[in-house]
Specification:
extended, 3 helices, 56% helix, two-stranded antiparallel sheet, mainly alpha
Length: 95
């Protein structure tokens, strides 16, 4: 983030150096999510990063003062999530 310049409104002009492959990926994403607008694609990725930071902060807040779950507890939770759902009961017509 070498150069920053003031711009009208809330935006800031930014100059960065990134790997050529990362830039190609950024251009590809920009075409997919914002019609090729790299600034909009970056803004979208920053929004996602903000959400991720918020999730991590929430997880930290929820976990304060608690020990991490054991491997056995996590395995039991995963098994419950992956368990097949029971098939719905068949209804019978009222007489």
């Amino acid at each position: 983030m070498a150069n920053t310049a003031n711009r009208p409104g809330r935006t800031v002009k930014l100059s960065v150096s990134i790997d050529r492959h990362d830039f190609d990926l950024l251009k590809k994403r920009a075409k997919r999510v914002s019609g090729g607008n790299i600034s909009a694609a970056l803004t979208d990725m920053i929004r996602i990063a903000r959400e991720w930071e918020g999730r991590e902060a929430l997880a930290t807040w929820l976990g304060e003062g608690r020990d991490e779950p054991s491997a056995e507890v996590m395995d039991a939770i995963r098994a419950e999530w992956q368990a097949p759902r029971p098939s719905p009961r068949k209804r019978t017509k009222a007489a």
